Amino acid sequence: MKNEPLANITGTLLITAFLLVTLAFAVQGAFETRTEIAHTFSRQAQIQQAQIELEELLRLQIDEENSLRGYSLTRDPFYVAQYHQAAAGYDAKESVIRGILHDQQLSGAGVLLGAYSALQSRWRAEVARPLLRHPRARLVELDKRNKLFSDYETRTVADVRAALASIEARLVASTQLQLNRSAYVRAFWVLVFGMLALLFNMYRSRLNRELEQERTITEILQRAFRSESVPLPHCEVGSAYLSATRQVAVGGDVFDVYRLSGNRALILIADISGKGVDAAVLTAFIKFMVRAIALRHSEPASILAEFNEAFSKAVGNPYLFVSMFVGILDTATFTLEYGSAGHDCAWLRRRNGVEQLSVTGPVVGVMEEPFYSKTIELNPGDTLVLTTDGLTEVRNRDGKPLLSAGATELIEGAGAHAQELADDLVEAARARGGARLRDDLAILAIRIMDTERVYA
């Protein structure tokens, strides 16, 4: 019994040492695989470049023939200059291709290219130069000799093309094999690390403390990016949020209603390509950055353009992007000017039906393309419904997603009041998706009230 603590410590140290060794092998294997794949991709790019240069070589060879023919018909020195220019370009391209084949150690393709170049040299010596010296020679003789060389050249070029295509196919197959092997190796190491992790029961209390800290951080983040109920003149505002991550009430979705002035309000909903606390960290940045920009710019397109630039600089991860809907609602004129950065989950419910609002620009963080704004007139009873794709992507038991058409039907049949509508959509998503959702779901509904009712 006295030696049990020492045995536990020794066992823990041995397991830790084994874990470190396996981790080192895993990292080394990953780097080696990455290097192999990069080398194969580089070779494939070189082969593709050689194929492109070969087609350019053929074009220059045709230019030589056409220039020679033009000179024979017109005696115009212009065609002589064109011929020499095409010949110089041909020689340069041939040198580039030969260099690529030499670097890639493709001796077979190099031999075929040499045969083709030798035919071209014979054509110049036996056809081109005599005709340049004696331009009055009969074109019939030129055509006969051209055909003889063209037949040989066509077959030789076909062989070069086939050789390059065969090499490229082998490289593609090699790349796929390396990718598959990398996936299998990663799966193996995941299994190994998973089994080793089961032996670390002594860290349960520490993990529990970390989870408690994460819950505390989550609550802080909730207060940071969730919008409080902001009253808008002549409007009802309803909202709902449903996280796809268990034990975490926040994620990569954010919405906001912010009063810019007495009758103007910023309307925002955004969906980050991620889930959980990591994505939630960015939601506060999005919320307050868009607010700050909206105080300087009144047009949604300008807001999206400036935020796109700020997001790309602030977020170093090139795989993170954001779909976003930004609107400026004027409660005095009942007009909504909006810009949609790849966010197609936006609807306007009117008395005679529901229409989906069109996208006006690309998603944020992917490319620098222009954003545009649209303006729509609102009437009493109209409801603006904004959601994230957690609604359209919710699946039934058969795995069929709801999609935009199904979401439109749900919105059309949901409750009349804004909060009632948001709650109905959440319940419909839960009923369709069961216990688990594939993606977070945020809902923001703004209903234009009857002005007579407001002032009554």
Order of SSEs: HHHHHEEEHHEEEEEEHHEH
Q: So what's the CATH class of the largest domain?
A: Alpha Beta
Total discrete domains: 2
> What best-fitting shape do the alpha-carbon axes yield?
extended
CATH topology of the largest domain: Phosphatase 2c, domain 1
Sheet with the most strands, sense and barrel status: 5 strands, antiparallel
Helices, by number, come to 10
Structural class: alpha+beta
User: Ends: how far apart?
Assistant: 83 Å
Summed over residues and divided by their number, the pLDDT gives a mean of 80
Characteristic terms for this protein:
Phosphatase 2c, domain 1, alpha+beta, disordered N terminus, 60% helix, 14% strand, 456 residues, five-stranded antiparallel beta sheet, 10 helices
Descriptive overview:
There is one protein chain. The protein is of the alpha+beta class and 456 residues long. It has two domains: 4-192; 226-455, Phosphatase 2c, domain 1, CATH 3.60.40.10. Helix content is 60%, strand content 14%. It has helices spanning 4-74, 77-103, 107-133, 139-197, 204-225, 276-294, 300-314, 403-413, 418-433, 451-455, and strands at 235-242, 253-259, 264-272, 322-330, 335-341, 346-350, 353-356, 374-377, 383-387, 441-448. It has a five-stranded antiparallel beta sheet, with helices on one face. A five-stranded antiparallel beta sheet has the order 2-3-4-5-8, covered by helices on one side. The longest helix has 71 residues, at 4-74. The radius of gyration is 34 Å and the shape is extended. Residues 1-9 have low confidence and may be disordered.
